[in-house]
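User: Watch each token:
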Amino acid sequence: MRAAPRLKRTRLSRVLGLSDLSILSSASMAPAYSIASTFGLMVAAAGSGAILSLIALSIPIVFIAIAFHRLCEDQSDAGSTYAWSRVAFGYKPGAFAAWIVVLSYFFAAVAAVVPAGIYTLELLSSFGVLPAALVNQAPAVAIAGGCWVLVASALLIGGMRPTARATGLFLLLEVAALMLFAVIAAFHHPAPAVAASHSHLMTLGARGMSGFLAAMVLSIWVTDGWEVSSYASEENVGTSRQPGLGGLVGLLITVAIVVVCMAAYSRVSDLASISSHAADTLAFVAVQLGGGWKTTVMVITVLVSTAATLWTTQLGISRGIFSMARDRVFPRALSAVHPSFGTPHLSILAVNVGVLAVTLLTGLMPSANEALLEVVNASSIFLGLTFVLTGLACIVHFRRKGFPVTDLTRVVLPAIGTIAVTALLVFNFASQSRWDQIIALVGIGAGVIFAAVPRLPKAAAPRYRVPAA
């Protein structure tokens, strides 16, 4: 007797609870990697105002997170910013939002691969497995980073449940190590010069408002990542409130951890020395605390953090592309769901092939790391635009549904957050290098062209119908 054919799966597996969503959001923010890569730069920009700049930026970002929460609650969609922009503004603006989302997340994924390769080589060389000279060789870094891309691919395709478990384990190890070093640093006796330089840690800093705003721009990278819970909203087992709430919980807890750690780590050295070690601040902190096993554990911590943010970032972009392909913004084949694992395997593969290709190319160019850094700096514009688009979509969508202009969480706070992030983006663009500005403008211009390309028949109906005002 012939076996019954397996029905084609069309929906993602619903396996995530509120705690899973919060963990994914926090791990995507990557507290250890964020501190290692941005704390020294923030201190260089704002001096003693670095910590306050992060706190100040977190306020409008929380308001944007509230907009994500309200939109997730009303219209859960794996496309997140793209889907809501389409609902609020129409198909072509939605396609533009899709382009911006893909650019921002793709560059964020690539930015995590190269450090993952570097820290892997550093760890292996510290144990004598590989020669230390390989750590700074671009081909070796590219190969090591490429291996992490393959690991992320296998994990994400294998299902959200194993991905969530691995992410939870990595986050637990990361936070435990960070807090251990924070306790050690808190009891570290500072030299007189250090104590004097940190007498006013909650000020604008020596460079005044310009330096403070520059540090706020850098803080965008610290606060980025919590929104991944909204991209996993179609894999949520609870109510539609949980994805947005998970993002808010992850954001608030992770920012608190980073602030505590930054304050503690700033005791180990004067501000000038911290800013001069901006390339690897946490390794410098470990050395100041005695080195040895502390340095090894710190390298492992940053590697764990980088790996977790790599696959959670790829999680976000793959779900976004899955939703976009479902709407034919991208080829419909990318909306396929694996019959056994319930994951968008083809969109995951498409993302990882692209990330792997760019990663391997960095090994062929002597100045690949510098070029990559330029692209990442420019991509901060794309990341900020995803927040602005979501804030605007929230305001327009709920006003159209009849909510008053005074509604606090659907209109007022999202509007304040949108205005603040927009102003910061303008300042960021004006302060960037000419090359970074060109990259940002080319990316935005390409998005306009991409949105103008016709894809759907005119008679095709949108997936959502928004009630008229």
Summary: The chain has one domain: 18-452. Residues 91-126 form the longest helix (36 residues). DSSP finds 18 helices and no strands in the chain. Confidence is low (pLDDT under 50) at residues 1-7, 457-469.
